[in-house]
Amino acid sequence: MIIKRINAITPIHLALLKEADPDEHMINSYISRAFLFECLYNNKIVGILALGKINQDSLEILNISVSDTHQNKGIGSSLLDFADVFAKKNHYVILEVCTGSTSIWQLYFYQKHGFRIISVQPDYFIIHYKKPIYEHGIQLKDRLRLQKKL
């Protein structure tokens, strides 16, 4: 497995980004300011990571995604570990990520990797997304912000 920086988004990258964030308009709002990385497994793009600077001390995981066929193989954990190393190497002391309140597996995943919920943004997905998003049969409304001190 290789994780490397990318400078341009291909259709494969965009498809992966949309797995984690179905609204292409929202992706376009943050992708131009992001540090972008792809994960290659057997020379195939199987994951993507987008990081964005919040402030001098904090870096945010804007998007992290692994293709369906390569999930549960440690690739997501490797991307998170890479984000930790990148943040520390660039002198950030806090790593943050936001996810939906109905994103059960993502919440488990982030907390398993040391993130803690620090805030709730009520109705975020209703206000900022044109189409309703449903997860596990529940309409996604609220966004949770999680943080990890490095």
How do the strands and helices of this protein lay out in sequence?
Layout: E1 2-6, H1 11-20, H2 24-31, E2 35-41, E3 44-53, E4 58-66, H3 75-89, E5 94-100, H4 104-112, E6 116-121, H5 124-128, E7 134-135, E8 138-139, E9 143-149
Parallel strand pairs: 4-5
Antiparallel strand pairs: 1-2, 2-3, 3-4, 5-9, 6-9, 7-8
Describe the model.
- The chain has five helices and nine strands; from the N terminus they run βααβββαβαβαβββ.
- It is an alpha+beta fold and 150 residues long.
- The chain has one domain (2-149): 3-Layer(aba) Sandwich (Aminopeptidase), CATH 3.40.630.30.
- The longest helix is centred in the middle third of the chain and has 15 residues, at 75-89.
- The radius of gyration is 15 Å and the shape is globular.
Question: Concise description?
Answer:
The protein is an alpha+beta fold and 150 residues long. Helix content is 31%, strand content 37%. The protein has one domain (2-149): Gcn5-related N-acetyltransferase (GNAT) (Aminopeptidase).
Keywords, separated by commas or semicolons:
9 strands, Aminopeptidase, 150 residues, two-stranded antiparallel sheet, GNAT_dom, seven-stranded mixed beta sheet, alpha+beta
Provide the low-confidence segments as ranges.
none
Structural class, by secondary structure, is: alpha+beta
**Which whole number gives the mean pLDDT?**
95
The CATH architecture name reads 3-Layer(aba) Sandwich
Number of continuous helical runs: 5
CATH class value: Alpha Beta
Could you tell me the number of beta strands?
9
Q: Return the domain count.
A: 1
N-end to C-end Cα span: 24 Å
Global morphology: globular
Strand-residue proportion: 35-45%
Q: What is the element string, with H for helices and E for strands?
A: EHHEEEHEHEHEEE
Corresponding CATH superfamily: Gcn5-related N-acetyltransferase (GNAT)
Organism: Vagococcus teuberi
Domain N-acetyltransferase: 1-134
GO molecular function: acyltransferase activity, transferring groups other than amino-acyl groups
InterPro entries: Acyl_CoA_acyltransferase, GNAT_dom
